[in-house]
Amino acid sequence: MLHIVNKSHHQTSSLASCLRMALPGHAVLLIEDGVYAATAGSPLEARLREDGSQVRYYALKPDMDARGMASRALDGVTLVDYGGFVDLVAEHSVSNSWL
């Protein structure tokens, strides 16, 4: 399953809900304001330390760039472009957008 989060963890509880539901083998893609979670101090940082590589994490690089954050991405978060976004959707039979 591909989980897509577009809201900041400061705005909604979408990321927290997503992280509770993400299982080993799933992928989480952060887009729009969701990319704020790909930086130090976010709930995702603690989760990355806890679950290692059981869940794969991605952030949309153009959204990181637009917010001046691409150089601050957490280790363990792969930055992808729009083509990578399409590839992730194609790789996963099920996608869930967390609103």
TrEMBL record:
Q: Mention one GO biological process in which this protein takes part, according to its record.
A: tRNA wobble position uridine thiolation
* Example GO molecular function: transferase activity
Q: Does the keyword Transferase apply?
A: yes
- Keyword Transferase present in the record's keywords: the answer is yes
In terms of superkingdom, the source organism counts as Bacteria
- Pfam families noted in UniProt: DsrH
Q: Which GO terms describe its cellular component?
A: sulfurtransferase complex
Swiss-Prot/TrEMBL keywords: Transferase
PANTHER family, alphabetized: PROTEIN TUSB
Protein name, entry field? Sulfurtransferase complex subunit TusB
Q: Which gene encodes it?
A: dsrH
